[in-house]
Amino acid sequence: MDQSFVRFSSRITHLQPEGAYAVLARAQELEAAGANIIHLEIGQPDFETFPHVSLAGVRAIVTGQTRYTPPAGQRELRAAIAAYARGQYGLDCDPAQVVVGPGAKPLLFFAMMALLEADDEVLYPDPGFPSYPAIIRAMGATPVPVPLEEERGFALDLEALHNRLSTRTRMIILNSPANPTGGVLPAQDLEKIAALARERDCWVLSDEIYSRLVFADTPPPSIAGRPGMAERTILVDGFSKTYAMTGWRLGFGIMPAHLAHRVTLLITHAIGCTAAFTQQAGLAALTGPQQEVTAIREQFRRRRDTLVAGLNAIPGIRCQVPDGAFYAFPNIRALGRTSAAIADILLEHAGVAVLPGTDFGACGEGYLRICFAHSPATLTEALRRMSRVLADLAPSVGSRAE
Ligand code: PLP
């Protein structure tokens, strides 16, 4: 068939690849030509899946757990997730409210598919995870960006959120700790957003995939535990980031049982189920020893401190200390170039791959996203290269102070 005559559905023509893959592709081209590139663009832990978790997966394969499972997930995994939810998010959770899927992304997708109509509006953070507006639009609904406030640790601008709520608002998406900023929403903001959601009768889709990667001593609060919120919240979390299981594909959603039933039907018809051995690996991760999660978080904290201190020592860069996840989101406006131009210069001339903030929405202009899930030596070398190349832009520093 002549491809120029193919008519694609209007629901998907807006879809773009994730920015990280475009940068990775260019970095790989440079590497093929002999360049040495430090990869700080992709957001995944640099350590391997814990051996006891991998072994549980392998054991499941060799003992024949290679068949279909119930679409919502294996009974024992859903029960373990419900028990985990009580401790981690303070939720009174029944296994009937848990839906397991191949990653957190399918839960974001199917929750929106189950709830959104074409005329609906969805508020989401900008800069934010690119899949939010992509999925909203794929459902035919309208994404409404809400800017973040850098000086408040990249919390949502609550006044803008309030002003952008309309009679068509059906859902508010939260992501705390956040990609790409590392921001954690303060408890008092969650109270206010919960009050608005109740008042306006909106759903809240709370993406808490980085909930175990927080640098404060207490777990970040979840909006799902606020009074009257369990019945209007879909909490999405998963195993990718906490247990370094990005390639296993395992995530879950916690939601009211009647919605869980609908989301399960979507999983039934779109996916069937999540691989049984992946679920067994997840069960081992959740119910096994957790000291390694804590140890890795401490490593990330030290790496964060190295990276942020190094970035703040470069003229023209100002970087907040992120409270969670493994991303720094430095402000580079004083360098006098766009985010894309600076990311390009760093890749082509310093051999350091980072992402422009604009890969995460228009409000990401003036920022870069740098993943610090890398060894201290790698981060130190990246900082050395960055400061050498950015020093050449120094004339515009100061003359363009904000
Ligand atoms: N949500 C956020 C904010 C993310 O950053 C990511 C992955 O980068 C995901 C969801 C997807 O996670 P999963 O690998 O479980 O699909």
User: What is the fold named in CATH at topology level of the largest domain?
Assistant: Aspartate Aminotransferase, domain 2
Count up the domains: 2
Percent strand equals 5-15%
Strand order of the largest sheet: 2-9-8-7-6-3-4-5
Number of strands: 13
Helical fraction? 40-55%
Question: What would you report as the Rg, rounded to the nearest angstrom?
Answer: 21 Å
Average residue pLDDT? 94
Q: Runs with pLDDT <50, length 5+? A: 398-402
Mind describing the biggest β-sheet?
8 strands, mixed
Structural class: alpha/beta
CATH class membership of the largest domain: Alpha Beta
Characterization of the model:
This protein is of the alpha/beta class. The protein has 2 domains: 3-48 and 292-392, Aspartate Aminotransferase, domain 1 (Alpha-Beta Complex), CATH 3.90.1150; 51-287, 3-Layer(aba) Sandwich (Aspartate Aminotransferase, domain 2), CATH 3.40.640. 40% of the residues lie in helices and 13% in strands. It has 13 helices and 13 strands. The chain has helices at residues 19-32, 51-62, 75-89, 104-115, 131-138, 158-164, 187-200, 257-270, 276-287, 291-312, 339-350, 376-391, 396-399, and strands at 38-39, 98-101, 121-126, 142-149, 155-156, 169-175, 203-207, 233-238, 251-254, 327-328, 352-353, 355-356, 368-371. It has an 8-stranded mixed beta sheet with strand order 2-9-8-7-6-3-4-5, with helices on both faces. A hairpin with a 5-residue loop joins strand 4 and strand 5. Helix 3 (75-89) packs parallel to helix 9 (276-287) and helix 10 (291-312) runs parallel beside helix 12. It is globular, with a radius of gyration of 21 Å. The N and C termini lie far apart (54 Å). Residues 398-402 have low confidence and may be disordered. It binds pyridoxal-5'-phosphate.
